[in-house]
Amino acid sequence: MRSLRLVPALLTVGILLLGCSTAEKLVDRVADTGSGSGDRVLYLTFDDGPGGDTEKYLDVLRANNAKATFFLVGRNLESRHELAKKTLAEGHVLANHSWNHTILTNDGDEELSRELDDTAKELQAVGATGKCMRPPTGAIDPRVKKALDQRGMTSKLWHVDIGDWRNPGVDAIVDTLLSSAKPGAVILMHDGGGDRAQGAEALAKALPQLVAQGYTFAPLPGC
Length: 223
Ligand SMILES: [Zn+2]
Hints:
Helix content is about 45%, strand content about 15%. It has nine helices and eight strands. Strands 1, 2, 3, 6, 7 and 8 form a six-stranded parallel β-sheet that branches. It has a two-stranded parallel ribbon with strand order 4-5. β4 (about 130-135), α7 and β5 (about 155) form a beta-alpha-beta unit. The longest helix is centred in the first third of the chain and has 17 residues, at about 1-20. Zinc ion binds next to β1. Zinc ion (ZN) binds near residues 47 and 48.
């Protein structure tokens, strides 16, 4: 039953972070994550890598016995197979975040297929066999969902966008991480797509505090 109380709490956090205009979209996201167990588990997810800061995230996760899900952009993965294999070998899960980080709902059918399939092939090439996909910016509609369904892929969105991609400063990211932690929450951060050093530094500060609160960190269920 605890998961039922989680949703309003997360909605409140999300609405505060994102503004009321996006509240409706957030409801879809919450409904789509399919998580929310009552355990004190957090689902850390990192988008847009692999990138130049990914190693820093791996170091922090290893130091805190934390496992996470990395949603990779195919064009970034293409030149970083060894880093992706290392991420897998350390117990994390790799998943699909499109090839070019396009807004899938704007793609034509052929482009949409390429975004999904080329990235899936690249993931298979490094040994990742999961079927989870996160559409860039969370943009999904019935046509995109059908394309995912046809491939046996599942969309995985998030409860809380930490806003690390804005580079608001390490302390601000730490505060958001600590205040967003709720049992079963799916946390969105980024290890690629720009300079992500702040997020790694913030994670290094926040994770020991969350561990002290009894949290554990697991890959997204079903990925
Ligand atoms: Zn992204």
